[in-house]
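User: Could you go from structure to sequence for me? I need the amino acid at each position, not a summary. Structure tokens:
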């Protein structure tokens, strides 16, 4: 099953393979012969991230070690999907995969070493300045625009998945970011309505209304997540946060963020409103974010939404067709994400979200 998933994902890529070596070893000791493993620098449910030094040249790496037996089939599909995507993407703001080692019991992903996590910086220094926020959002939009142009949708963009690295071209750049964790990413297939997605996945705080409302959705789900990060950096809090899960989902779907003008410029707020647009037809694209005057700092430059009118009309037709399609046959949603809420009918009703015939299947 994993091999079939591998082949299907590979066949969908428009990008050229970077020829990243995937080395299969019979004994894990062969990996330890190449790298000197130091301290643990991260951990998760299915594995750890360890600082490793390449013995031949003393170069430092972050090695993500996944225990196959603990992870299980579903998680391994996510890991394999992440590996396949990282083997082909080539962007300065996307984490770099050097090699993959695979033993009978473990997977070793040799990744570039980063120095910090954006979320930890945010927690310590929130809110962040417009200058810092602008720098981060531009890079993030550039990386996401690159992914979308190549039919890759991340689907789990959040602060915890943005790392800070050294900029080889500018050592004074303190906010050179790397987008990471592509386990929930997907390569779009088909055109038109066939390219829309329906899997319910991601992290609720960063999820757009269309996913919570069980609609088919496009790559613009990533743009919404960029808006959440931008708002958090500027204001120091999530625009929809509530400890109560039902209220949180209701806020995302039906409430508008509070845009306080004190300490935040009008241009920044105007951009936020274009990104955190609940209707994906009207939502700005990742490419358009880069052209906004708040990002480009070109005063008087107007944002041309007219250039995107054809795309917007296509999105509108997609949404209308998907609504009709769902009414006629119902929709099966696969819950393959992390940190998902328990979406019972009761909770959705309390949140004001209608879910009639939709079935939710949880893969464990």
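Assistant: Here is the amino acid at each position, in order:
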């Amino acid at each position: 099953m994993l091999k079939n998933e591998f082949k299907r994902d590979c066949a969908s890529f428009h990008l050229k393979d970077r020829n990243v070596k995937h080395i299969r070893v019979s004994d894990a000791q062969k990996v330890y012969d190449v790298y000197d493993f130091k301290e643990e620098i991260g951990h998760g449910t299915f594995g750890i991230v360890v600082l490793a030094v390449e013995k031949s040249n003393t170069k430092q790496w972050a090695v993500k070690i996944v225990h196959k037996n603990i992870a299980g089939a579903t998680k391994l599909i996510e890991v394999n999907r992440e590996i396949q995507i990282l083997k082909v993407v080539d962007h300065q703001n996307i984490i770099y995969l050097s090699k993959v080692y695979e033993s009978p019991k473990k997977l070793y992903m040799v990744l570039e070493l980063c120095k910090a996590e954006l979320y930890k910086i945010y927690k310590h220094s929130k809110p962040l300045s417009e200058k810092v926020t602008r720098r981060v959002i531009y890079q993030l939009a550039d990386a996401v625009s690159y992914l979308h142009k190549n039919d890759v949708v991340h689907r789990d963009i959040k602060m915890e998945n943005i790392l800070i690295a050294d900029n080889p071209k500018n050592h004074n750049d303190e906010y050179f970011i790397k987008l990471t964790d592509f386990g929930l990413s997907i390569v779009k297939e088909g055109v038109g309505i066939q390219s829309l997605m329906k899997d319910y996945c991601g992290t609720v705080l960063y999820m757009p209304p269309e996913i919570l409302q069980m609609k088919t959705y496009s790559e613009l789900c990533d743009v919404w997540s960029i808006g959440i990060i931008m708002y958090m950096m500027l204001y120091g809090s999530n625009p929809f946060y509530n400890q109560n899960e039902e209220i949180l989902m209701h806020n995302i779907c039906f409430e508008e963020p509070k845009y306080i003008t004190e300490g935040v410029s009008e241009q920044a707020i105007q951009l936020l409103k274009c990104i955190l647009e609940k209707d994906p037809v009207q939502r700005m694209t990742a490419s358009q974010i880069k052209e906004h005057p708040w990002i480009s700092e070109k005063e008087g430059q107007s944002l041309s939404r007219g250039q995107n009118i054809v795309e917007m009309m296509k999105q509108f037709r997609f949404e209308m067709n998907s609504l009709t399609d769902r009414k006629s046959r119902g929709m099966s949603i696969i819950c393959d994400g992390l940190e998902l809420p328990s979406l019972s009918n009761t909770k959705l009703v309390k949140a004001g979200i209608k879910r009639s015939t939709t079935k939710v299947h949880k893969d464990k």
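One structural detail worth keeping in mind: The first helix runs from residue 2 to 12.
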